[in-house]
Amino acid sequence: MDDLPGAVAAAREAIGINIERGADHAVAIAIEHIALVFALRGDLARAATLDGYAKAAFARNGFERESTELTSPSRPIRA
Q1: 42-58 pLDDT, tens digit each
Q2: CB of 25 within 8 A of CB of 58?
Q3: With left for phi above 0 and alpha for psi between -120 and 50, is residue 48 left, alpha or beta?
Q4: Do the Cβ atoms of 39 and 47 come closer than 8 Å?
Q5: Sorting pLDDT into bands at 50, 70 and 90, what band is 39?
Q6: What are 57-70's pLDDT values in tens digits?
Q7: Which of 37, 59, 73, 75 yields a CA-CA distance of 20 to 30 A from 67?
Q8: Among 76, 66, 61, which Cα is nearest to 26's?
């Protein structure tokens, strides 16, 4: 987690690639990663907005998280 700008750049690239592929769940995962970066930077409002968008996209597409993903300590912005 030392390279936050690199993490955002990789997530943005993933968003572009997955939009072209029509992989909506992968776009939402990349958005979650960007949300995590904002949370780590202290911009909790933006992090929460992006996380909410990702949650809505998962629900809209019927994507369900595994139990380990829902409880992992590496996902600090879950409310």
Answers
A1: 999 999 999 999 999 99
A2: yes
A3: alpha
A4: yes
A5: very high
A6: 999 988 877 665 66
A7: 37
A8: 61
Cβ-contact 45, 53 below 8 angstroms: no
33/39 Cα distance (integer angstroms): 10
The pLDDT of residue 8: 93
Identity of the residue numbered 78: R
**Alpha-carbon distance 13 to 15, whole Å?**
5
Place of tokens 């955002």: 8
DSSP 15: H
Say what the pTM is.
0.78
